[in-house]
Design a protein that fits this description.
By secondary structure, this protein is α/β, with parallel strands linked by helices. It has 13 helices and 18 strands. It has a single domain, classed as FAD/NAD(P)-binding domain (3-Layer(bba) Sandwich), CATH 3.50.50.60. Helix content is 36%, strand content 25%. The strands form four sheets. Strands 5-4-13-14-15-12-16 form a seven-stranded mixed sheet, sandwiched between helices. Strands 7-2-1-11-18-17 form a six-stranded mixed sheet, sandwiched between helices. Strands 8-9-10 form a three-stranded antiparallel sheet. Helix 1 runs parallel beside helix 10. The model has no long low-confidence stretch (mean pLDDT 92). Bound molecules: flavin-adenine dinucleotide (FAD). Flavin-adenine dinucleotide binds next to helix 1, strand 2 and helix 10. The site of flavin-adenine dinucleotide has 30 residues, from helix 1, strand 2 and helix 10.
């Protein structure tokens, strides 16, 4: 069975790996000219670690993990007011791992040298017949596949072409975030400096074997910011964080020179169904929980493992497999999306004038470091529960099965 995958992010690369293991023939199309390596450090938690183990890449991920040792919480003048262990600050428990998004994706790419990847192209049109999917690309010649997996991220192209405009499914949480590389002029060694108040957080960190450091800024906003205009985005970030002292003015000045500026709104994708006939969405494209959940990468890994496993279990009968995928994933996704909504609600609580938000703000002014630690620890318990709220099936007996034909065709 020939399966086209749109997007070479964590979801796309992982599903390609597993599909190949079960004898399917995956092809990936990625719009970027090479693997996109920008972005933040991301976490793999709970049951998602099993996906790494079963793919034989857990040790590689541990070796390449960020190994963050410490977080220094500072006040708005840059003075250190509190310290936390790196794992505690990042909500990690047990064997949870933190790694750069690009490093994880490079490890996944190295696992699939024999899979065809078309870089620098994108799907232009999709037409489904009873027997197949005809795909036209922007640059390459049209081709026919049995199935199409849309794992092309929050602003998915496949979702737009098959299910309709993004606005129908996207729920902005009213929070924007950006991250970009800066010189490690502070000589940070696996250390993070962070400033947090309700509605604003900013920081800088350098992880293991990173020559540079990364600056990040996140803020709540009740007005919509154009997702593709970098000039406006950078100006807004400067306006909002221009009042901070310490290292922050210098970090903001590096923003104009950086070549890996990432900016997006924290949004979730809510859909009643993730599939339409021979097309299915996966990862952020289907069920983005937003960076506020801290679970985007784990959801991509788990979803990719289950989708490929269910296709193998159903011997390529995609209708059965897609139904099973929804059934297994829905409760897990709902719980993890709730994490993002709760975190966003707390972050934006200053915008509401009620006794609770008043109290939180007062306490935040009195004991900023300790209160941040309290909220982080409370969220860690919730994240841990959600990250372990699914148990992965063992599909290993199917590894010898070779699925070359579409069983739904006569
Ligand atoms: C450059 C980048 C930086 C990121 N940085 C952060 C971050 O700092 N913090 C955070 O929490 N999350 C970040 N994310 C999101 C995070 O990677 C995902 O939440 C998570 O890993 C889920 O992965 P995914 O594979 O579903 O989606 P993604 O990681 O978004 O991967 C989607 C892939 O699809 C590709 N794509 C997009 N459009 C098309 C198209 N038309 N045709 C073909 N391919 C297409 C993209 O280039 C990308 O490679 C970032 C995503 C990207 C693309």
């Amino acid at each position: 069975m020939k399966i086209l995958i749109s997007g070479a992010g964590t979801a796309g690369l992982t599903v390609a790996y597993w599909l190949k293991q079960y004898g399917f023939t995956p092809t990936i199309v990625e719009s970027a000219p090479t693997l996109r390596t920008g972005g933040y450090k991301i976490d793999v938690r709970g049951e998602a670690l099993q996906v790494l183990h079963r793919a034989g890449i857990y040790d590689a991920v541990v070796t390449a993990s960020t190994d963050m040792q410490e977080a220094l919480l500072v006040d708005k003048h840059g003075k250190v007011i509190h310290k936390m262990r790196g794992d505690a600050f990042g909500h990690r428990q047990g064997n949870d791992q933190e790694i750069m998004r690009g490093t994880l994706n490079q490890i996944l790419l190295d696992q699939i040298p024999e899979i065809e990847i078309i870089f620098g192209d994108s799907i232009q049109s999709i037409s489904q017949t009873n027997d197949a999917i005809e795909v036209e690309f922007q640059k390459n010649s049209p081709r026919t596949f049995d199935l199409l997996i849309g794992s092309d991220g929050l602003h998915s192209n496949v979702r737009r072409l098959v299910f309709g405009d993004e606005q129908k499914f996207s729920h902005e949480l009213g929070i924007y975030l950006c991250v970009y590389s800066v010189p490690n002029y502070l000589n940070l060694d696996r250390t993070e400096i962070n400033y947090t108040e309700l509605g604003r957080t900013a920081g800088v960190w350098s992880s293991r074997s990173d020559k540079n450091a990364k600056a990040y800024f996140a803020f709540s906003s009740s007005t919509h910011i154009e997702p593709r205009d970098t000039v406006i985005q950078q100006q807004v970030v400067k306006n909002i964080f221009g009042t901070l002292g310490g290292e922050f003015p210098k970090l903001l000045n590096f923003m104009a020179e950086t070549n890996d500026f990432y900016f997006d709104s924290a949004s979730q994708i809510h859909m009643n169904s993730w599939s339409s006939n021979r097309v299915i969405l996966l990862g952020d494209a289907a069920y983005c929980a937003s960076p506020m959940s801290g679970q985007g990468t784990s959801l991509a890994l788990v979803g990719a493992y289950i989708l490929a496993g269910e296709l193998a279990l159903a011997k390529g009968n995609y209708q059965i497999a897609f139904n099973q995928f929804e059934k297994l994933m829905r409760p897990y996704i709902t719980l993890n999306q709730e994490l993002g909504m709760k975190a966003a609600k707390l972050f934006r609580s200053k915008e509401k004038s009620n006794p609770l938000s008043w109290l939180i703000e007062k306490l935040m002014n009195l004991l900023p470091g300790r209160l941040v630690e309290f909220f982080i620890n409370r969220a860690t318990k919730r994240i841990n529960r959600a990250a372990n709220s699914i148990v992965l099936k063992d599909y290993s007996l199917l590894l010898t099965h070779v699925c070359t034909k579409d069983p739904t065709k006569s």
